[in-house]
Here is the input.
Amino acid sequence: MQRGATVLLTGLPSAGKSTIATLLAERLRSRGRQVEVLDGDEVRASLTAGLGFSRQDRCEHLRRIGWVAQLLARNGVTVLAPVIAPYEQARSAVRRHHESTQTPYMEVHVATPVAVCARRDVKGLYAMQARGDLKGLTGVDDPYEEPLHPELRVDTSEHAPAESADLVLSVLFEEVAAWRR
Ligand SMILES: Nc1ncnc2c1ncn2[C@@H]1O[C@H](COP(=O)(O)OP(=O)(O)O)[C@@H](O)[C@H]1O
Ligand SMILES: [Mg+2]
Here is the structure.
C-alpha cells in the first residue's frame, strides 16, 4: 500500500491555501498518489455544518478535519487540508493525534502578509469587514496564532503558485521519510 500523509495548510483568508492545495493535488495524482482535499470552506457544508467562527467552533472544525484526515492518511491517502486553523492548541492536537498513531504529518504555514491577502480578497471578506458587515475576520479583528515550528513557511507574495506547490512537494519528500517509495 502507498504511504499516506496529512498536509495541513494554515494561514489567513486569501493567503493561497486552496490554490496551493489544488495544484499540489494535481502534481501528486500525476505521480500516481491517491489524494483527497479537505478544504475548510467546503467541509463547513457537511462534516462541520452548524459550526461557526468562535474559538471553540474553529477548534472543533479543525479537530474533525484532522480526525478524518488521519483515517484517510493511515490508509495510504495523501490528504491536503487547506484550513485557516488559527489556534495553536487545535493545530498541535491534530499533530499529536497523527504522531501518536505514527501517521505522517506536515504543517505548512502559508504566511502571506495580511496586506497582500486584503488586496487579493478572493471572497470579499476583507471588504465586508472594512464596511462593518463582518466581525471576527482572522488576521484583522480575530486572532491568528502564527505556527512556531511549521515544517514549511511559504510567503506567496514572493512566489508564483506553481513554485509554492513545488516547495511543499519537495519538503513533503524530505519530511515524510520513506514516503517517496
Ligand atoms: N504564490 C501563490 N500561491 C497561491 N496563491 C497565489 C499565489 N500568488 C497569487 N495567488 C493568488 O492568491 C489567491 C489565493 O486564494 P485562495 O487560494 O482561495 O486563498 P485561501 O484558500 O488561503 O483563502 C488566488 O487568487 C491565487 O491565484
Ligand atoms: Mg481556501
Q: What stands out?
A: The helical segments are 17-30, 40-43, 55-73, 88-100, 114-120, 125-131, 161-175. The radius of gyration is 16 Å. The pocket of adenosine-5'-diphosphate (ligand 1) is lined by residues 11, 13-20, 82, 120, 122, 156, 159-161, 164 (CB under 6 Å).
